Amino acid sequence: MQKKLLSGLFWVLLANLLVKPFWILGIEVGVQNAVGNEAYGFYHALFSFSYIFNILLDMGLTNYNTRNIAQHPQLITKYLSGILGMKICLFGLYVAVAFTVGLLTGYGSDEFRLLGLLAVCQFLNSLILYLRSNFEGLLLFKWDSVLSVLDRVLMVAICGCLLWSPLRTRFDIHLFVYAQLVAYGATALLALVVIGRKAGLKRVRFEKRFCMAVLKESAPFALLVLLMASYNRIDPILLQRLAGDAEAGVYAGAFRLLDALTMVAYLVSVPLLPVYSRLCRGEREQVGPTTRLVLLPMMFFAVGSAVALSLAAEGVMGLLYGERGGQYVPVFRVVIFGIIPISLTYIFGSLLTAGGYLRQLNLFAAASLVLNVAVNMALIPRLGAVGSAWASLTAQGLMAAAQVWLAVRLFRLPPAIFRMPGREDFAMLRSMVGERLSARGGTEGGR
Asked: What whole-number distance in Å separates Cα of residue 205 and Cα of residue 80?
């Protein structure tokens, strides 16, 4: 199982590290520089608003499906047909709730025009994530790696032409969203065709009894996703309402590099959840070694990146934003340390999710959300975006510490998983890589 995990990590990380850094640090930075902090802050706040209600599109189905298909792969045809029908119905619910809350919040026509486009983007993105969960559950990580970057490849091509090619035109934030619509739509279509053929999908159906049964089982996953999305994305929303679009734009600019680094931790967790799900079903003694296999490299990366980038904050922000880089530095120096608790959360959260400890995770997430809102309300009036950065780091730290403590206690993880790697660890890794290369060489020789 560890070999399968390493194989999945290799393909997913390779594909994403080739594409997504350029998307985040090239295209998104180019868009923000082109439209300005105020327009981008307006977009980022609405994007965060639409993201929080994303749970109504998913209802915990993605994580539930990954875990369920990993443990019971023979059910994929039944679940794929039924859940696709549910997703269509959930989109209607999502639009109704998001627009109602938008009205109560005081949004005007400009906000609703952009929110409508973002709602369709969120639906397509949610559909892609659900379809990918089937590949993950079947441990088909090569297909998953392709689908994880295809939308970004298409967006890079479209936005690159709009921003820098001779075909460029006057760029505004709506063009950026239209590019996302096209890219998400094409990726969702490909994913549906491929997994439909592999699962023998003949039709999409909606059965009330099936839907109620699945929603009952996925409800704890849904609550967890809602709470985590809220404490992760509520900062720019509070900033926009309490301090204005410009402060939200500064926070978005400083947050961008953390978003890029968080991608690595997220990608590590993608194969972790199905692997942990199978281990929890019958090989719990392998949980400790598997955790150690990813924990130490991830911590080296997270701590090293946070310290180095914080020390070089002025140079990094200047490189990204030119003369305006100085305004992002105070926020960046705080928010970048979030990579450490976020990395721990992805690893130990995946383990606890696979083990079925959703009630405890939901309690931790609820406490983190309350803490985040309280710190934001106290600090934004005095510190603006810097206050939001401290609120985010505080909430992330609480969540990570609680998950590590619970995982160590429930799975009786030995202290050895936290020690420095030794000679035997590198020997095991060399052996796995050698076997992988030998198998690949034999395959190519046979061709």
From this structure: 9
First and final C-alpha spacing in the chain: 27
Q: Check pLDDT > 50 for residue 114.
A: yes
Do 180 and 27 touch, CB atoms closer than 8 A?
no
Mean pLDDT of 357-381: 90
Helix (H) / strand (E) element for 147: namely helix 141-164
pLDDT beyond 90 at 148: no
| Residue 244, Ramachandran bin (φ over 0: left; ψ between -120 and 50: alpha; else beta) | left
Q: Which residue has the tokens 């960046």?
A: 332
Distance of alpha carbon 193 from alpha carbon 185, whole angstroms: 13
pLDDT tens digits, one per residue of 282-327 = 677 778 877 887 888 888 889 999 999 999 999 988 888 887 788 8
| DSSP assignments along 209-223, one per residue | HHHHHHHHHHHHHHH
Cβ-based neighbour number of residue 216 at 10 Å: 9
| Type of residue numbered 356 | G
In our burial notation (b when 16+ CB lie closer than 10 A, e otherwise), range 325-335 reads bebbbbbbbbb
Centre a 10 Å sphere on the Cβ of residue 414 and count the other Cβ atoms it contains.
13
**Could you give the CA distance from residue 195 to residue 134 in angstroms, rounded to a whole number?**
8
For residues 65 and 83, give the distance between their C-alpha atoms in angstroms, rounded to a whole number: 9
Q: Give yes or no for a contact between 272 and 294, defined as CB atoms under 8 angstroms apart.
A: yes
Taking a C-beta distance cutoff of 8 angstroms, is the pair 236, 48 a contact? Answer: yes
Neighbouring C-alpha atoms within 13 Å toward the C-beta of 235 = 32
For residue 401 the two structure tokens come to: 């510490």
Q: Provide the whole-model pTM.
A: 0.64
Q: What is the spatial distance between Cα 405 and Cα 352, in angstroms, rounded to a whole number?
A: 11
> What single string gives the DSSP state of each residue in 104-118?
HHT--HHHHHHHHHH
Give the pair of three-digit tokens for residue 327: 């305004």
Burial class (CB in 10 A: 0-12, 13-18, 19+), 35: buried
Write down how long the chain is.
447
- Residue 47 tokens, joined: 């994007």
pLDDT, tens digit (0-9, with 9 covering 90-100), for 219-229: 777 787 778 77
